[in-house]
């Protein structure tokens, strides 16, 4: 019996990948190389610092830690300037209905995101109040596929991991959910998401009857 749903944020509740892309691309261009949408795929679900390392690898650039910190901060400032303009109409189709259904049925809701900007995004889209617990990049020390973010979510809700289901759009997130001993539903295409209980393109056809795992 599922007692809680844990949601990744970026790529599940909202499509922020497009803003990450613009901000990383501007940084790459400034450093003198190009950064494509295909490159951006590699950054989904990946932490800010690790994303920068991948970007620098693509550009063939090596920098010291101090410079990397500066660049990560610069990218984040740019990214935040975009998410500050986000509005509730950017919530992905079907998400809000599904959250309402969960609440009505007494199923708890938590956020499990790698992003340090998660609280700002939730505020911008007006969804903060829907979450019984918010675990984000500010409260975890180990990145997905480590299960920390989801285990902390289950603990905050006082629910056993086996009674939780995670919604994730990144392979590292699916693995994090599995490592936590939870059920997991992939959001996206099955070709890119292995080891989920099932994969669906989005929340438009989702309803709580699909939360029956045996
Ligand atoms: C994840 C995104 O949710 O958060 C990644 O999928 C991002 O692309 C990561 O790098 C960290 O986000 P932030 O907002 O703390 O830089
Ligand atoms: Mg994601």
Search tags:
binds 6-O-phosphono-beta-D-glucopyranose; alpha/beta; 41% helix; six-stranded parallel sheet; 6 strands; 214 residues; binds magnesium ion; single chain
Q: How are the secondary structure elements laid out?
A:
Layout: E1 4-7, H1 17-31, H2 37-41, H3 48-59, H4 65-83, H5 95-104, E2 108-112, H6 118-124, E3 133-135, H7 148-157, E4 164-168, H8 171-179, E5 183-187, E6 198-200
Parallel strand pairs: 1-2, 1-4, 2-3, 4-5, 5-6
Helix pairs in contact: 1-4, 3-4
Your description of this structure?
The protein is an alpha/beta fold. The protein is built from eight helices and six strands. It has helices at 17-31, 37-41, 48-59, 65-83, 95-104, 118-124, 148-157, 171-179; strands spanning 4-7, 108-112, 133-135, 164-168, 183-187, 198-200. Strands 3-2-1-4-5-6 form a six-stranded parallel β-sheet. Helix 8 (171-179) links the parallel strand 4 and strand 5. Helix 1 crosses helix 4 (65-83) and helix 3 (48-59) packs across helix 4. The longest helix is centred in the middle third of the chain and has 19 residues, at 65-83. The protein is globular. The mean pLDDT is 96.
